[in-house]
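Narrative progress, year one. The postdoctoral researcher (J.K.) led the effort to move from monomer predictions toward full complexes, under supervision of the PI. The following entry was the first complex the group processed end to end, covering 814 residues in total.
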Amino acid sequence: MYITIQKKDLGTYAHMAARFSAKQHTTLPALGSIVIVAGADGIRFRATNLEIGIDCTVPGEIRSEGVVAVPSKIFEEFISSLGGEGTVTLERKGEVLSVNSGKVRSTLKTVPYEDFPTLPFPPKGADSLTLPAATFKGLVDAVLPSASVSTVRPELASVYLYTEGGMMTAVATDSFRLAEKRASIANARDFSALIPAKNAGDLVSALRDDADVTLASAEHQLALYQGGTVVTTRVVSASYPDYRQIIPKESVASATILRKDFEQALKKISVFADAFQKVRVSFETKKKIFSLFAKNPDVGEATEDIPAALTGEQAEVSFNFRYLQGALPALSAESIVITASGTGRATTVRGVGDSSFLYIVMPMNQ
Amino acid sequence: MDRSNPKELWEHILTQIELSVSPANFNTWFTQSSIARIEDGIIYIGVPSQFYRDWFLKKFHSLLLKIVRTVSVEFRNIEYVIVKDERRKPRETKVDRATTEMPLDEYYINKSDNLNPRYTFDSFVVGSFNELAFTAAKAALERPGIVYNPLFVYGDTGRGKTHLTQAIGNQFKKQYPNRKVFYLTSEKFAVDYTDSIGAGTANRFKEKYRQYDLLIMDDIHFLSKKEKSQEELFHLFNALYDNNKQIVFSSDRNPALIPDIAERLRSRFAMGMTVDIGEPDSESRAAILKRKAGLHGLVLSDDAVEYLANSVPGSIRELEGVLNSIVCQAQLKGGVPDLADIKQSLRTLARPSKAVSVKQVVTKVAEFYGIDEESIYEKTRRREVVRPRQVIMYLLREDFNVSYPTIGTKLGGRDHTTVIHSCEKVKRDILSDQGLLDEIQKIRTLVG
């Protein structure tokens, strides 16, 4: 194998593929490697950790065809350190790959590529769904932080995606808070999938914002096609709870505040939060005050009033402040509405004039 | 080695494989796999994902076949299935005990069969009132489609019909993993039918329901007067019945008493086994309470259970509702609630949840105070109208659980904050004003 690739391209694709190979030391070296294939359909990089996989076309020139597998971490690190303009030649010489660029000459030990598995890519078909990649990434990114980190319940350690009524909806919850993001899409076919949360970030990282992505799913697998790149992930085959039943219908107290004010106050007050990370939120309708309060017997206490428009009754609810903070990155509106629905019940956070994002957070027991 | 024992067979295969593949390959591909089952000479190997399935097929299939054939020529083939494996399941790591959890568990529904996995025979409390239905359900499962077909379960709402019929579905799935179950309500069936007519896919509709080995149709009485849907069900019934597919129906009354049902359908409902679930006696109610409280991790004292079983009127569902509130309060306060706590919370909970129209309440209250009904809806602040209006709001909120905004809209487009204010005012006033309290009690008897 003898190929030439622009340094910039090589860097981009090596970085992209490396995310899909096994990060920890694995027993099978092929899983910790990038497989470089130079063949009839161009230069392709492949990598997998058996959870996710990638197969991408890399622009370049093939002088002679062949296959080689190199340890992904070392390869990526070396390539990214080359810097500057120009081309890189990759040539296989027996058990080593020689990588040359300008005055840099190196040889890299290869690993047996025969052990590299075939990647399950469900084929594109009539029931595939195509949408702008930016929309898809926006959906996933908005809810991903709310997914459960524990995989005891695999469906909650996932991002749930489904289409309904011309909209695609992404949902994630760890049962303490829940995020839902909706976007309208053209040609919304029936689609639903549970993407493991730990895979979702890597998957969308391989997508470019300025093109469409096609989602092709099979019973246990989902593939995303974009240009010459295909990525795939295992999907969770479990049922997702009918989470809409959780969305509170009643409101006890509601406050409209500036997102910025809330974010800053939360940052200050949470310094004083106790071991349970508790922050108390007060809706003092009569005094027209919305305030945050935290107290830690070992540290002290702090409170801050935030200018707010209040409706409803007097209410006090305590939260783990991290769950409140979790709502903020996905809220793009300048003003937000926080609505409490009573003791022990869920509280919602929404952006004013933005119906696409909903965040639900559960209160603390005491 | 017992070659029909999946575990022993897999052990044998592993020792053979280990000799043929590198340790790295062995550890990567084989340690997370096992034989899921052996059926008709086909060995089903359970693997974690499609990555594994594809690679097994490509790389190890012929090797595995060779190994199993040396064990026995009876093994015709090997297939690979993606399974969840309990061994791969991580140990529970609770992250946050201080925050209340969302009651998500109650909202799991399996999309392919509509069953809620929470409803099982294990969680079904059997008492004298439902013993017959329970036994019939078990018997029907032993020889589905043959002994009791159809199985018709009836009883008042909230007595566990849905639990029992769904438990049949879940048990059926467990007992016969290759057969298909479907659960739906008769309403859903009717809607589905009308939709399919509208979309011109009536044939697909017919095929869809005919493929099931067990069809459970809940609340069949909702089909009354829906003639077209009844006819469709009649044909579906015959198709399933002739092929010995099990059918389970539930209804709130005996098939003979369902109004406006075609006679030919009625006779078919009753041709298998008809069982009723009666009124639960107080021992059964106590047993149910204990079981449900246990599911929430709450151990109630015997006298508390007895008190609840006897003093909460109505169905099991209402009983469960009361229990849920008690559990919620126990979590808030910490500790186990005793009899006094429960009595206290029952007092706050005891609200007749009867549906009533706003208009009805307005009429009765206006009548009681001797004022014009229309003036309630007007924007007048005359004293003789203000009080009755506040009382109406209070009653709607306290006794009938109508939401604040709804009350506001129904009473002449008032802001919900006004409603909240009124309710709070009445609540405060009755504490000091015995006359007002008496008036409200009288109105309650009028409205109730």
